[in-house]
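Hey team,

Filing this mostly as a record. A colleague (T.K.) asked me to run one chain through the structure pipeline before their review meeting, and I want the input and output archived in the tracker in case anyone asks later how it was produced. No errors, nothing strange. Just documentation.

Input sequence:
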Amino acid sequence: MCGRYVLYSDKEQAEIREIIEEVNRKHNLAVKKGDIYPSNMAPIYAPTPDQNGKSLEVMKWGYEVSFRKGLLINARSETILEKKTFKKDFLERRCIVPAIGFYEWDKEKNKYIFQAEDDEALYIGGVFRQHENESEYVILTKAPVEPVVAIHDRMPVIIPHSKAEEWLYDANAAMGMVTQDYVPLDCQIAEK
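Output structure:
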């Protein structure tokens, strides 16, 4: 499960800085920097109406649903096409969640941060919907790979930058991407 990620840190990351500046200009909205929690508004790359490129939007992390208390923040990629809540969104409304890294906790409650080995922004795969005049997104998760597998039993689906538009526009290609391990990750223990 991915329950928190980092949009911005003290570590200089040009793409994330540009995302924050564009959101501030386009939406006249001050983006929350640092850790992003469920229910926070955050920048998301979504498909464009003309299906050419990606559009930077602001959405709430988590689906509000009537069948349970609290927000649904993750969806298992292995069963995404079997779940009524997510199937249509996966087929028609995939998004990319830009991040510096994501957190996972081990059984002893130690917090670890996972980031791309090359210090590039991570593109986390997600789906989105419009619900009661608000856009919401969830993060897709999968079985973990190294180094996450030593810490937690799930991890977010990571999309390579070179495959971003394929993820947004090609459902068949996207289905194949959820099982691939394209982006090498670095792991560090995070401050408590």
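Quick notes for T.K.: The chain has a mean pLDDT of 90. The domain at 5-189 is CATH 3.90.1680.10 (hypothetical protein yedk fold).
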